[in-house]
Amino acid sequence: MTRVVRQPPAQPLARTRARLEGTTLVELTGLSRDRLLGMYQRMALIRQFEEQAAALYRAGRIRGVTHTYQGQEAVAVGATWCLTEEDYITSTHRGHAHVLAKGADEKRCMAELMGRATGYCRGRGGSMHIADLSRGILGANGIVGGGMGIAVGSALASDLLKNGRVTVCFFGDGALNQGILHEVSNLAAIWRLPCVFLCENNFYGMSGPVDNMLALGPDGFKGRAQAFGLPAVECDGMDVIDVFLGVREGVERARAGEGPTYVFTHTYRFLGHHVGDPLTYRDKEEPELWRRLDPIPNFGRLLVEQGLASTQDLADWDQEASVRIAEAVRYAESSPEPSRDTLLEGLFG
Ligand SMILES: Cc1ncc(C[n+]2csc(CCOP(=O)(O)OP(=O)(O)O)c2C)c(N)n1
Ligand SMILES: [Mg+2]
User: Which of 144, 279, 281, 282 to mutate to test the pocket of ligand 1 (most atoms within 8 A of CB)?
Assistant: First the structure.
């Protein structure tokens, strides 16, 4: 197996900075100042949630397996910032961030991770199974590629009901090799369903580097979409604005009845595949290189340069995020475990 040190893009937010020549962030994105600041605040909340989830898992206070998302926050937030509350997402085994970005409550998420009755799935799903249908969150999923059929089913329902809702299907580079992807891409393309296939290429599936796992033609990732006659966009997954602009193209196309789009984001998970991963397959130098592109402080600096926030604001929002997550942990720990008499509830067969 080859072990290459993957070089990150030379400059953080390079694509956004290039687009900002002669304009402002508000003009470039069409987002209000509050929405732009909200991107930073949500990414900070997700980072704190993930740091706490990892610490709690290591301390034995969360059972099962936990996959965290530090480094990839720009993808979840950039993508969901294109959506309305009524739109849908499907998520993955690395899904805490997707659901938090779509507006899930951090207290109920933390309670789910800790197996408590107040969690989104009453403590029965755990880290990989958080759903909140009231916010269009159709579920994280422990099966790689498991969200894809659900996403296209949801897009078909929206198409039949003509309700104008779009579904964003999050999945990893590893899921690009799942058979279901080909089935649903074909169907969604033929029926021009309103969905966006959002690939988070973090360069590894479990312990397998993407170079050893993924056969790509001369057009790289986009070639996969071209095979279905679908348009594709490639984004810097460490740049929340670049992700937002890329996914928005897909969402607009879907809403206009023009069918699905593939969005390939290139991003990086700073930590292991799961908490406790010994990371023997990755060079130690590599995450350090990518940390220079950390999507949160780099976006914070841009907000300050744009005159939208002060460094003190950023520090305050980081602090607020850690207070909210500490409260979420307290809420979860003071919640009861599911009682024995509910053991048979929610079973189908
Ligand atoms: C169908 C299926 N096969 C294998 C697994 C075991 N597994 C869990 S995560 C994972 C790697 C997924 O990689 P990727 O899609 O790139 O997501 P990432 O972990 O990088 O976020 C594998 C193989 C699984 N959960 N489901
Ligand atoms: Mg991956």
Answer: 144
